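Write out a sequence, fold above all:
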Amino acid sequence: MSLAECQGCLAGYFCNLTGLGNVVAFGSKYLCPLGSYCPSGNGLKPIPCLAGTYFDNGTLGNESVSKNLATSINSCQFCPEHYFCTKGQGFRYEHPCPDGSLCPLGSGDVVPCPPGFFCKNENNKVVQRICPRGFYC
């Protein structure tokens, strides 16, 4: 085998060792980790999804893993409304929006509730209400 026969790492996988051969044959060992994407030929290091996005391979908790590979930044999805996603997050529902904050679609951090309103997380859905008369919000 010569160096000319070597190929770049497959998209959706990371190849942190030389001479791996068929990374698909290793099962999930070299799959790009959750919260990251791995473009073709990148190889050594998975690239974390940006804050406000996530990649969880289409799984919800303990459900079976699909064959949805993280091959580009487009694999990272916007964080759902009422949640915020930190850089490299691998589960869409990891950070529910706390009381006193808003978390619109694609939030990388919480947004303070605007003056004159109060915001409360009720069953993982943020409800924004006008401050009641006689109270300061």
Observations:
- Residues 60-66 have pLDDT under 50 and may be disordered.
- Strands lie at 36-37, 47-48, 53-54, 77-78, 101-102, 111-112, 117-121, 126-130.
